Amino acid sequence: MLLTRLARAVFLRSSVDLVGMNLKNMVVLAYLRDHPSAAQQVMTEDLSMDSNTGVLVLNDLEDLEYVERRRDPSDRRRHIVDITEPGLEALERAEAAQGSIEDEILGGLSASERATFRRLLVKALEDHLPTGG
Asked: Which listed residue, 12, 52, 91, 120, has the most CB atoms within 10 A of its CB?
């Protein structure tokens, strides 16, 4: 229940105006930064995203020139996706904005309490996130 409330508080403050993109785009860009030359199908599976949604998100990001899709030379049926330099820059700006939201929400915690909270969250989620998550 508390994690749901925390996630909702972050979500409600994460406007496109503040962050510069919607959260789906941000999650996909972060995944691609951490998984260079990712297979599109693997990416959608790792992010628990249906393939149609994945295509729509990647179309959006491709239109913004934040990602590049190409056919896998070893299997022409597969697409390989990479984040571009503009995509990386946009992601860095979005993550900085998210950091300000984190500061606002966790403002009542000391630096030590924040470090403990982060460590415990990572530990609790480590088996439930895709590799690099």
From this structure: 91
